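Q: My labmate handed me this sequence with no annotations at all. I'd like to see what the chain might look like in three dimensions before we decide whether it's worth expressing. Could you predict it?
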Amino acid sequence: MEISLRAALIDWLAADPDLSAQLNAVVEEAPSRTSLPWLAIAASASTDWSCKTAPGREVRVALELHCRGDAPETAATLVAGIEARIDSLPREQPGFAVASIQFLRARAEQRGESRRAILLEYRFRLLAA
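A: Here is what I predict for the chain of 129 residues:
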């Protein structure tokens, strides 16, 4: 279910017209030759979340947004759009259902050459369909 969730999440984020107009890529891992800004899954991990009637997984996904900007509020609107889109992920997916989506934490980091990295971590609880 973890791999299926990752694919569904990337497809869902890439299909948003507002996000796709602002991002040069929405991908599963850091692109090697894409100009900023871009969004990628930095990591994911899963544990058992089964119940008596269905197998399940709790999947934690960390997404990383890379952009340019020196000001702390750089990309605040873009991050809000990403968060809203994640929260609206359809609950019924091929092969599984999303029981819950929870934001866990975020981290922003200023890097050299006016680069900024923003990490967003979420927990998804899934049940097999």
